Amino acid sequence: MITVPKRYSYIEAYITLRCNKNCPYCINQYTGVERKRKELSSKEWILGLNNISSDLPITFGGGEPTIHKGFYEIIAGLKPEIKIDLLTNLTFDIEEFTTIIPPERFTRKEGDEYKAIRASYHPKTTDPDDLITRAKTLDSKGYGIGVFGINHPENLQYNVIMTEKCRKAGIYFFIRDFLGFYDDRLYGYYKHLNALNGNKKHCQCKTEELLIGPEGNVFRCHRDLYDGNGEIGNILNMAFDITDEFRPCDNYGLCNPCDMKLKLGPDLITSKCSVEIKNG
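RESULT FIELD:
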């Protein structure tokens, strides 16, 4: 059994890194990503995820997790006590989704600011009215859902319009920081700015997130996950367990902004960094 340390605050299973959109500001692309990686089968995902012991929900992410051919089989095969969250662009078949997955499968309660289903809005590749209609259908059926936009400099006006559309429709809409560079300017709020300066050096780091790649490997950070190297174990290894400790790293300076950002807590007010750095 993989026992998640009590200090950990987040679990994400990237069941696929493939995506049916191609947004230029995607955080997966920051340090490079190979989207067509080996992917566990549904039976393997079920075995591995059921081997995790934690009170935290398992967030299904990607890429777009619902395009994994075994997505529904994976959800159905999880232990009943495992709650789930979903990061999605909401392009899946809504009727099929609501028929197969009951809203009770998700962890958040009505009124929570941090919704269990967090749907991304991508201007220029998404019809905002269609996205809102899909979100309203899920909301009406009891699924806790919120729509979020990215405050990329090219998206700002779109987000203003979407904010008003969602308000009128009664759909929760929130903004997430754009992370990375645009026109030679670094956007986002970070605890460790030197981690993004491109000057590679040695450090020791410790995370509070369990990040699982499409092949079942556990990674210490998003940079390693997207690059597909530096894994510390695999969820199919029944002898693997997580040690909550600082680990040596030779890639400090080439980090992914997602690891170094000051992220919002479940209340969407307080913030902290999920990674601690020593000697960086």
